[in-house]
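Q: Sequence in, structure out?
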Amino acid sequence: MERVQDHLKPAVLKKNFFSNIKQKKHMDQQINTMIISCKHIAFIADSANIFSSKSRIQSKNTMNLIILIFLLCTQVLHVSTHDILILQPFGSRSHRFALVPIAKQLGQHGHQVTFVSTYSFEDSIPANVTEIAYTQFADYFKILQGITIDLGQDGWSIDIMKRYYNYHSDLCQQFFESRLLQNWISSGKLFKIVIIDSAMHECILPLWSFVGQNIVIMNTGLLNPWVSDYMNVPTPFAYIPFIGSPHNQHMDFFQRFVNTVYWILAKYVTRLSEDVFYKNVVLPYFPNSKPHRETLNNISLALVNIDPIMTPPSPSVPNVIRIGGIQCRPPLPLPEGKLKNFVDSSDENGFILFSFGSVIDGSLINEKLRNTFIAAFAQIKQRVVWKYESQLSGLSNNVMTADWLPQQDLLGHPKIRAVISHGGLQSLQESIYHAVPSICFPFTTDQPSVVEITSAYGIVIKMNPYSVTVEEIVKAIDKACKDEEMRKAVQRYSKIFHDREEDPLNKAIFWIEYVMRHDGAMHLQTAAVGLNFFQYNLLDVSALAAVIVFLTFTLCYLGIKRLIQTLINQVHNISFKLKMA
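A: Exactly. Output:
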């Protein structure tokens, strides 16, 4: 296991980087040696079988040995390991949780994995996984948390867009200037595959060709419009609610109209902003980088952390792989200490887990909402484990705070009764995985959509974070802890969540290795990649059809008009002749 911080140990980075090459060469030599050894052993065994004069049973045993050796050698011949780069230097902890299992599993498969993230691994990792932590970016993340809270309260504005642009450009420029990236590019070494987090890492996408041979993106939330757009995923606006929309898949006429406007604006405003960002931020550092649109068209696969419960059933394409709940796992025993004693010693009323995830720091919520929670918790019988990143006063004896919590281990604890969260996709996936009722306070991004969809199933209680009262919180907690119908519903959907044809982690690993085996997966792309907006939506065909229909009706109209005029003229002529006669 290697843990490296880019700004602290640049020399170690270079050493680790080039040592991976030596390790791979050494592994290849070992494989070749094993193959030769297998051949020699098989030859000896075969000779023993031919010249042996022993009993029939001994010959049979020898033949079994030959078959066993042959099977082992066949497996060795199929061993193929590669250098893999996972880039997530700007992402939140929650996004990282979806990529960590992938990194570990790829390492266990023998691949040399380099994982670039903002945070370090909390537990052990395979020896062939090199971890590079940009810990200096963690302070920047607090800026994003403030933007997120303001966005949820005030909506999109020019000021928020400027703040987000400045935040994103600062991070990108620091990464472009890092010794790590410069060393990779100057070395000329290419990773077999580069896996990039799609959220907030758009500036890195055009650089993949400098450091890798193939590119895969990871979408940890709902299928974003900018991902579905460049992966050419069909998005029927009639029943796919826009991310952040407070609607589920069943919309009336007005909701469908607003939903359509949101989707179209998001797709084309995103395209425009990406082009502007590419020209202003990426090109000054990398003038030889490929155009942004060309980069997007070269993506082999998109791994998307969605499932049929959190997202409405929808059409897809072969190169979008759904791996919903990849971060979910069975609970582990809580380590000895204050937290374990607090939850284990709770009475029959159990305890409640309260966490707004990693994107929304509990200490950043406004004072009114914070005091509302404190007052509500003082009135309930359950104990509360509250993820809160700073000191908090005025708490009742049934409340414990901590700046970090082992969420899945608490969700799987036998005494948990409910969870209070922000309604993030991964948080809700984990609560459904462990069959725990949820009380959700959606703030922004995909949270309103996810909460709206799951609340319709009766497994989530939706709350308004800006107007909630003490009485409403107490009532919601009482329902989540005692309502038998809600508990049965969450158990039913948990069973559905678990019932799938393949484990999401194994599915992700298969497709990543599939891309490496075939040196890309461009054959999975649909022909839509070469169509523009008018062609893809058949607007050109519709226009031609409209012209044909118009011309047909026009010709018919003119023909009928002329026929009628001719008949009228003939009638006039006949009348005139009769009068003259």
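Confidence is low (pLDDT under 50) at residues 1-57, 72-79.
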